Amino acid sequence: MTTSTPFTIKLSTNPTSQENRETILATPGFGKYFSDHMVSIDWSIERGWFDAEVRPYGPLSIDPASSVLHYGQEIFEGLKAYRHADGSVWTFRPELNAARMMRSAHRLALPELPLDLFIESLKQLVSVDKAWVPSAPETSMYIRPFMIANETFLGVRAAERAAYYVIAGPAGAYFAKGVAPVSIWLATDFARAASGGTGAAKCGGNYAGSLLPQKEAYANGCSQVLFLDASEMKYLEELGGMNVFIVLKNGTVVTPSLTGSILEGVTRESIMQLARDRGHKVEERKISFDELRDGFSNGDVAEVFACGTAAVMTPIVAIKGPGFVIGDESAPAGELTMSLRQELTDIQYGHIPDRHGWLTQL
Ligand code: COI
After folding, report:
1. What architecture (CATH level 2) is domain 8-171?
2. What is the pLDDT of residues 181-191, one digit of tens each?
3. Mean per-residue pLDDT pooled into runs of 10, the chain (362 residues)
4. Any idea which residues bear N6-(pyridoxal phosphate)lysine here (predicted)?
5. Fewer CB atoms inside 10 Å of the end CB: C or N, the chain?
6. Contact between residue 80 and residue 166 where contact means Cβ atoms under 8 Å apart
7. How far apart are CA 39 and CA 3, in angstroms?
8. What torsion, rounded to 10 degrees, do the Cα atoms 104, 108, 114, 115 define?
């Protein structure tokens, strides 16, 4: 199936009233509200992709024996739609999300959704739910494509039936404090992903495994959990739901290299490009926790930040762990962090020219 196969459009007979939608758009939070429609496309080993639809948002009916419910055969993506001053709606580097979803599908033995169908599914959904894209500063529509194995079969093998969906909803800042600096919690008893595992795939299981340490982080006043590599528990990998960067005092921007257990973030990639454009040296390499700890106290590490589609770029000013605190929880956000963040969001919202051709109109 290609995009020349039309999507069937089934409009909601009971859409949210304009008044209720405007109330939601005024304070959307993150991941709490959803637009009136969703996309679904089915897949089977015999037919490939079929029955592409835009349909009213609502519960899925799946058999209790579906593989996703037992073996976690599931993948997802996250991207945003931004409203520009002229009312048009754009998304950011969707081809990278499409490619990552194909890599995730490959790793999870799910079917690979072609790039054109992925992009078309976003366009179809946004064309019916454009009114859900907010326009206030720092707001957007968060789009969540995902795929599940829905074959009714309890044997442990790759499913022969799957479904792809796209849901979306208005979004403000991911963290409760908005763009303000956060503290993170070092997981000392847990790892996120091991070599040869699924760490580079965006699959639900990686996030499920992060929830217990994430609870520990919240209990200690931290917004995210920091994972070290699983084999030596020595090198920074990523946070529960986002990548991590450090900025050295000489301006070098450093992020953990993609070892196979780290998610290749679209924001991560874009920040490296923007930093290079400004003449910063950018390194993808191992960063030991010792380098971070010592750098924080002797000033060699000037800034630390988290990044991801949902979080954008969030300054990190303190790292806590069992019995220790590094940094200062009341410190201001790093200068380079905030200025790269401004440039990135200025491109996304159309405030400055899109010199790399990163935007796609929806
Ligand atoms: C995203 O940034 O889009 C993610 O999928 C991460 C999640 C913490 C919301």
Report:
1. 2-Layer Sandwich (3.30)
2. 999 999 999 99
3. 74 95 93 97 96 97 95 97 97 98 98 97 97 94 98 94 98 81 93 92 95 94 94 94 95 95 96 98 96 92 94 93 90 93 96 97 96
4. 202
5. N
6. no
7. 14
8. -10
d(CA 43, CA 340): 41
Give ipTM to 2 decimals: 0.95
Residue 223 beta carbon below 6 angstroms from any ligand 1 atom: no
**Ligand 1: which of 79, 174, 271, 312 to mutate, judged by most atoms within 8 Å of the beta carbon?**
174
Pick among 3.20.10.10, 3.20.20.80, 3.10.20.740, 3.40.50.2300: CATH of 182-349? 3.20.10.10
Give yes or no for residue 104 CB within 6 A of ligand 1.
Answer: no
What whole-number distance in Å separates Cα of residue 162 and Cα of residue 164? 7
**CATH 3.30.470.10 domain residues, the chain:** 8-171
- How confident is the model over 108-149, as pLDDT tens digits? 999 999 999 999 999 999 999 999 999 999 899 999 999 999
CA atoms within 13 A on the CB side of 328: 9
